[in-house]
Amino acid sequence: MKMRYYLLAFATLAGMVSCDKYLDQMPDNRTEVDTEEKVAALLVSAYSRHNYTMITNFIADDMDNNAEVVTGSPGEFFHELWNWKDITYTNNSAPQNVWEDLFGVIACANQALEAIEELGGPQASQSLGASYGEALMCRAYAHFVLVNLFCLNYNSQTSDTDLGIPYMDAPERGLNPAYERGNVKEVYERIEQDIEEGMPYVRDEYAAPKYHFTRQASYAFAARFYLFYEKWEKAVAYADLCLGVEPQTMMRDYNELQNNYSTIGDARRAYNSSSNKCNLLINTGYSNIGTYFANSSGSSKYYAYTSLINQTEGLLAPMPWKGDPTTAMAASDLRWRTHTYNVSALSYTILWKVSYEFEITNPVAGTGYAHTVYPPLKVDETLLVRAEAYIMLKQYDKAMEDLNLWSNNYYSSRIEMTPESVTDFYNRMKYYKWDEPTAKKHLHPAFAIDAEGSTQESMLQLVLNCRRTENWGEGLRWFDIKRYGIEIYRRAVNGNGQLAAATDSLKVDDPRRAIQVPVRCIDAGLQPNPRNNQ
């Protein structure tokens, strides 16, 4: 019997668990996925349209509260985000929409996989095999994002009891299904199974390959997954496959960005372009995140990446190749310049990279949708994935090769680092305090690392700082905070633009490190994440 893909029935998990009468009868809007071409077309919908980066940028440590400096308010959604509250307000970037969108991605992947089986399986043709590999990668990646957003980070100590997410590996047939969250360990095991099963089938033959899981993009995803999974050797192995023997030939050309694009719009489009070798996968999403990382004033800077953050622990923080752990770098030390603007007493810094495009759907009213375009997988970040895995394997010379390669590409004024010079540098730097910020923060991972002051701990400080710089504005810093148990603070800036108070902190064992699952799902019976007041 031909498999039918019911467009309404399988839209989102949230819809499935929140509506008892959701499918009293089959919808009329349906199509049969009964050819190889239809399977491939279906997988175009197996990529997210609501990205998580707004959430993870605001809940990490790259924002201060500037309420006394700027006028206006960004709204309750952003207040809840920044204060690590369970989100009750919604917009295109809200956790509820990210949750629903990713489970919609998973539903598309599952429908494609079922269709492939009914058409003879992945061995039946090269086209079906390629779709099979892509569907498994899309399903694995969507679950990977979900588990890292809505659960505690994977660790070998507690993940067999930490709440996971429902792992959807087949199309939903029931009208009122019950879902169990399982645990994080089980989710990671099933992601690994999908990656390893799908990888041999992944191909590169697409009209727009950067919008699909090609082999190189799949290798980059697998490398990051195994880094988070604490399987360092496999992280290195997949990073090797992604990077090849000359990764420098694929890295981002910052000189080209600096010299050829003089407006923020052009620079952002160039950074996120599919023509860049360094961008391995391109996603689009409904989001106005670009307005918060641009030269806009007022309420969008209520929470902002201040110049203080930038100079003490961010893009211009002291780094080992400059020698002095107490002196910030100059903007001219970067191959790609930061841009600093002022609102009243507030000085804030941005890079021209976080995309903003507006799609007009009603020309008369001038209304439409805000979009962002971003690369969730990049060559430069994969290089740092490998460096971190090497550090965990204590192969410091190999890690240093990757870190020198990355830093030489990003910064214009520097010297070659060695494990010894890095260790000396970080031993001369003080650990971070909220009112005396530095780029060196206490690390509390569940996995074992050497003592503070050791070569391993010092090199981990470096790679985490490099990752924070590389991934600025792209939302990955939050996952590093979780993986390494880094304590972060909510800080208020006074009317003079100086740090005034720490209003809250996120400790190592704070359950708010797992974003609360959507209210609609909780109301339908899905187990919520625990909170300290429960």
Could you describe the 3D structure shown?
This protein is of the alpha+beta class and about 525 residues long. Helix content is about 40%, strand content about 10%. The strands form five sheets. The protein has a three-stranded antiparallel β-sheet. Strand 6 and strand 7 (about 345-350) form a beta hairpin. Helix 8 (about 215-230) runs parallel beside helix 13 (about 380-390) and helix 15 (about 420-425) crosses helix 16. The protein is globular. The termini are far apart. Residues about 1-30 have low confidence and may be disordered.
Summarize the structure in short:
By secondary structure, the protein is an alpha+beta fold. The chain has helices at 13-18, 36-42, 53-59, 76-82, 95-118, 126-150, 184-198, 215-228, 232-243, 254-260, 264-271, 307-312, 379-392, 396-410, 419-427, 455-470, 477-483, 519-523; strands at 4-6, 30-32, 64-65, 279-286, 303-304, 339-343, 346-350, 357-362, 367-378, 488-493, 499-506.
